[in-house]
Amino acid sequence: MMSRRAVVAVGLLLATLSSSALAEPLKVAIPQRGFWDSSFVDFALKEGFFKDVNLEPEIFWTEGGAQTLTLAISGSVDIALSNGTLGVVGAYTKGAPVRILSAQMTGAHELYWFVKADSPIHSLKDAGEGKTIAFSSPGSSSNLVLLNLLKQAQSKAKPVATGGMPATMTQVMTGQIDIGWGVPPFGLQDIADGKIRIIARAREATELRNQTIRVNIAHVDKVAAKRDALTRFMRVYARTVDWAYQNPKAFDYFAESARVPRALAEKAVADFYPKEALQIGEVRDLDRTLKDALDYKFTPAAKTAKEVEGMDRAENARKELIERLSEPIDLTPERLREIVQSLRSKLRSAAEQGKTELMVMRFPTALCTDKGRAINNSDKDWPETLTGRPRQAYELWRDQLKDAGFRLSAMIVEWPGGLPGDVGFFLKWGETKR
């Protein structure tokens, strides 16, 4: 057992991670249960990642981006994931109190359009005037991708909002609409069984290749009131994306959620979800999104990226985080009691799982004088590059825990754009399992 002195010392390290030591609830709206990229919060809950940062998310599944956006605008949820950027831009320019927290999907990849196997339509060029083609809801990513595909194919088919995929499949199979939309693994078995055929894929929309088509958002009041919790949430989200592409358990969870065989779930990810598309660090090609919003009448007048810069809170939030972590933490007796209580729970949970290490802090490389190069290169003098709270955390370990046999390691845990992004501090004890 650790002594009380050691518990308090580790607690001081954990204090630098968040502004609240007690688990904080978050209401999270996520569209279309059963998609790979709608599953990351569920994965993180199953793996206990949110416990590491004192969060308790509650998921509210929706039928699509429009419903998710509505929940964000009304303030009914704390964060809304996977919203069509087109719809968010349109809502913002009309005065909706929403802010973008991060990118969610960049480039068009997973969407596809299909027909019944006996349909005479073999491509969008065959879908002329009088034909109908589905998308989920106005302003969604399926809406944006479809409009681009129709323009590219010079097709005069009529776009129709059909809602979710099961309802869309029914409308296609009963002849109510000519071309349906889908996202794998939905429909893959029907394709294999020869019931339907894919006639177009989102990746054919070449103009969208580097454009962020979906974003994660929150109401402006939620951003102000829960900035720290939202920052912690997005860090876990990024961590889970990395984990999902490295750990085979993710395919088991995905197959269970989507109610498909594991092999089909794995094929869906391999064929339709490139990991690089799920970067959250940068909302890309906003100028093109603004042009699309005007062309497709989601905004009444032309807007520039400068005019809507207040919509994107991600970069500003990161700057504020860096500023906050630059200052050593002020520990009151009340705060310390909370930290110790939370720490005991964390250590007990880690021990029960047979773990011998715990990530006690994560921070941007901007808090290193060399932007994390020494840590990345395992330079023995890496502690000398630390500033602010990371420096405070290191000194607490050095002065109070090192002699008790605890080890502290630092490593780069996030690589946005291939460059060092965040550093993780890991406290280790006993024999570390690898």
Structure in words:
It is a single chain. With 434 residues, this protein is α/β, with parallel strands linked by helices. It folds into three domains: 22-106 and 211-322, Periplasmic binding protein-like II (D-Maltodextrin-Binding Protein, domain 2); 112-208, 3-Layer(aba) Sandwich (D-Maltodextrin-Binding Protein, domain 2), CATH 3.40.190.10; 329-428, no CATH class. The protein has helices spanning 4-15, 40-47, 65-74, 85-93, 141-153, 165-173, 188-192, 220-225, 227-244, 249-258, 262-272, 286-295, 314-325, 333-352, 373-376, 388-400, and strands at 24-31, 55-62, 79-84, 98-106, 112-116, 132-135, 158-161, 180-182, 196-201, 212-219, 357-364, 407-414, 422-428. The longest helix has 20 residues, at 333-352. The chain is elongated, with a radius of gyration of 24 Å. The model is unreliable at 16-21 (pLDDT under 50).
Properties at a glance:
434 residues; alpha/beta; D-Maltodextrin-Binding Protein, domain 2; five-stranded mixed β-sheet; three-stranded antiparallel β-sheet; 16 helices; 13 strands; 39% helix; elongated
